[in-house]
Amino acid sequence: MALAYRPVMQLGGMLLSLLGWVLSCLTTYLPQWKNLNLELNELEIWTMGLWQACVAQEEGGMQCKDFDSFLALPPELRFSRILMFFSNGLGLVGLLLSGFGLDCLKLGERQQDQKKRLLQFGGMLFWISGITAIVPVSWVAHSTVQEFWDENIPDIVPRWDLGEALFVGWLAGFCLILGGSLLNCTICSTEVHPSSGHYAVAEQQDHGVISHL
């Protein structure tokens, strides 16, 4: 029964991992890591991402300005850039390796051990990719919450709030981890090779002939 669900689990794991990788790439370039709503001017909403800061107006327009220097960024944004690139790269490699290890792929049918290793290694890469996507968004969220509730900052000073990109990043990380878990679960199920089936049928026929004799 486990063998019957194996291709379905592999397909589900690949789809979840692909969704997580796309969301991770989207999180990297979204400018809504932090939101700032000015009470004095409610018509404008400032947002900050890993690459640029933007201001959105009520009329629907948005103006963005890229950061001039990488070293001038806060520490959490600098390390978030590196970790998100690392997550996206590992996710891409995991998709390629896992794709070659799927049972539905006829390439390398007689090399099941190698395909199993590719599938297992791809699933582990999805785990690491998911963790490296969750860590930076959680770090930025933690620092934002700390600054928001900092009593040393006067109440009249506007404070940054959590942006939508952080929630997209959390979803991406959980999809990658869940997808990698499904792929690794399929490795535990055993597969019956066609050659063993033919051998069993031939052995039964030989026993039948012997009994008739």
Automatic annotation (TrEMBL):
Transmembrane segments: 12-30, 82-105, 125-145, 165-187
Keyword match GTP-binding: no
Top-level taxon of origin: Eukaryota
Gene Ontology MF terms: structural molecule activity
Keywords: Cell junction, Cell membrane, Membrane, Tight junction, Transmembrane, Transmembrane helix
Topology of this chain in the membrane: Multi-pass membrane protein
Function: Claudins function as major constituents of the tight junction complexes that regulate the permeability of epithelia.
Family of this protein: Belongs to the claudin family.
PANTHER family listed in its UniProt record: CLAUDIN (PTHR12002)
Name of the protein: Claudin
Organism, scientific name: Cairina moschata
